[in-house]
């Protein structure tokens, strides 16, 4: 699986447009903890005091330390396997995402399943938390 995913990453590295994140062995809480740790170490390296850091912390600062720092937030999360739970997937980045749940298990997820998810997503009215 790891080899297949690495090959897919390498062969699509120059493709522009859609960004697909596949999370295996990923934890959203761990990512947020890593982001905070990175933010603290970065501030220490620059000689920023705790008071200055506390005053400067905002959503954008935290976002710059996430694993997906150069990517936009997710528009659509497709949850396979029939489970209707988030499982800690990209907790920060999915604050305003739409979710699509399907019964197909990941290895068997096909193009037709993807197209169904896109059709469902296209019919929704996005409010972005409003």
Automatic annotation (TrEMBL):
<dbReference type="GO" id="GO:0016094">
    <property type="term" value="P:polyprenol biosynthetic process"/>
</dbReference>
<dbReference type="InterPro" id="IPR018520">
    <property type="entry name" value="UPP_synth-like_CS"/>
</dbReference>
<keyword id="KW-0479">Metal-binding</keyword>
<comment type="similarity">
    <text>Belongs to the UPP synthase family. Z-FPP synthase subfamily.</text>
</comment>
<dbReference type="GO" id="GO:0046872">
    <property type="term" value="F:metal ion binding"/>
</dbReference>
<keyword id="KW-0460">Magnesium</keyword>
<keyword id="KW-0808">Transferase</keyword>
<protein>
    <recommendedName>
        <fullName>Di-trans,poly-cis-decaprenylcistransferase</fullName>
    </recommendedName>
</protein>
<dbReference type="Pfam" id="PF01255">
    <property type="entry name" value="Prenyltransf"/>
</dbReference>
<dbReference type="InterPro" id="IPR001441">
    <property type="entry name" value="UPP_synth-like"/>
</dbReference>
<dbReference type="GO" id="GO:0045547">
    <property type="term" value="F:ditrans,polycis-polyprenyl diphosphate synthase [(2E,6E)-farnesyl diphosphate specific] activity"/>
</dbReference>
<dbReference type="InterPro" id="IPR036424">
    <property type="entry name" value="UPP_synth-like_sf"/>
</dbReference>
